[in-house]
Fold:
Amino acid sequence: MNDTKKSKTQILRVRLRSFDNRLADQASAEIVDAVKRSGTHARGPVPLPTAIERFSVNRSPHKDKKSAEQFELKTHKRMIDIVNPSADTMEALKKINLPSGVEIVIASQQ
Structure:
């Protein structure tokens, strides 16, 4: 039998969510820049499908039932994979000052 060892690569998956696409792009660029400065490889940012929530609200509660306003809320998402992160990479990610309005979720993948 041929016994070959497969080296497991650890992947750190960073997901960003924001209501403003410019903030999501700016935050993802800062993360990729910090990862590259620490000497680690990053895949992405990958734009994920934008979630659109639409709401229709009556203009008046008692009169003109046919008159309604429509609103929509777009959530822009980005994903970045960090391959084999080091301790320096983790420190760099902790020190990043992200703009307000950006939600970040970091998960480990095998």
Summary: The first strand starts at residue 11 and ends at 18. The first helix runs from residue 21 to 37. The radius of gyration is 21 Å.
